[in-house]
Amino acid sequence: MPLILRAIITGFGYKLGAELARYAATRIGLIDKQQAKEEEAAEDTTEGLPVEPDDVGAEPRSDEEPQVEPS
Length: 71
Hints:
The chain is built from 2 helices and no strands. It is mainly α.
């Protein structure tokens, strides 16, 4: 079995298992629904994704060409 296919199946199984465990825990009262929603939101964050250097603190871009001062 190719490695990428194995990784996809493993990731899907992990996500499915986590959802089932969270559902069972809320049904039997181990955790409340608000806590489960917070945990799910924390799982789905984009932490660790690279940020474009141009987007950090930049002002909105205009369609004008930048003006270069003659030297």
